[in-house]
Amino acid sequence: MTPLLEIKNLVKKYKDVVAVDNISFAIHQGTCFGLLGPNGAGKTTTIEVIEDVVRPTSGEIFYRGQPRRDSFSDEVGIQFQSTALLSMLTVRETLETFQSLYRKTAAIDDLVQMCQLAEFQNQYNDKISGGQQQRFLLALALINQPELLFLDEPSTGLDPQARRNLWHLVQQIKKEGKTIILTTHYMEEAQYLCDEIAIMDYGKIIAHGSPAELIGIHSPEMTVILPQKQFVLDPDQLSMPVRTVKDTIEVKTNDVNACLNTLMSHGVNLSDLTIRSPNLETVFLNLTGRQLRD
User: What angle do CA 281, 184, 201 make, to 5 degrees?
Assistant: First the structure.
């Protein structure tokens, strides 16, 4: 099956800095593809090159099996991290203005309903909240009925309720068969929304797969957590890594059943036990490090 979008040997250099270092990947129709990485990893440059905002140094970009054409910008939707809009226009007037720029467009009333804009559609652009603005920018990205949608950190700065609401909208868009490229610093968001993920660092793709595949390969261990007062064993009696964290004991294991059987056989009280499963954030930190980057 021909991918909707295919990137081959993409390179972008700025003088002596290689921002994107010979990366390749393909995205199939109807998937949500997450491009993740720490600050400076090259993901924003990659997205900007694919969007045709920045010219690549070398490499090829194919859309529907053909080299990307000038019409590409008319066929995709982009929600940037931030967009400057005219403050003298209302939300609905702005939607109408953007609609006039395209031949193929969605009905404004449909977008207003889907993105829950009705309550503030007659307010000025600079008079709406952060959560309302993100839903509004999503509606603008959908105005030309794109098959491919770029969402660049769409939930940054949103409170948990507004973020979950945005996730629901993205899920609705996926159900319509649209293809999404998502960048985000929220690993929970990527794990919840993405079918496939590429993790970038220093301009290269260092891991690629579904969230479950990445967790299984790069962070398979689970953590069994017990109150320290209930752990009456010498850690040397166990053949598993054990560490003390504040007033708890953490046991790392690839086989939870075997771990629990071992603890019970040594008379450990499991009544206040908790089990922490690995997640995408664990994978991300294991691969890219825990040191803060500017």
Answer: 70
pLDDT at residue 294, as a whole number: 53
Judged by phi (left if over 0) then psi (alpha if -120 to 50, else beta), residue 240 lies in beta
Q: Is the pTM of this model over 0.85?
A: yes
Residue with tokens 């005219």: 86
- Report the pLDDT averaged over residues 65-81: 88
SS3 66: strand
Q: Report the side by side order of strands in the sheet with 242-245.
A: 242-245, 248-253, 222-227, 274-276
The sign of the torsion formed by the CA atoms of 139, 170, 5, 208 equals positive
Express as a percent the part of the chain with pLDDT over 90.
Answer: 61
Token pair belonging to 125:
């652009």
Which domains does the chain carry? 5-216 (3.40.50.300), 221-277 (no CATH)
Burial class (CB in 10 A: 0-12, 13-18, 19+), 291: exposed
Determine the Cα–Cα distance for residues 254 and 211; give it in Å rounded to an integer.
18
Instruction: Count the neighbouring beta carbons within 10 Å of the beta carbon of residue 167.
Output: 17
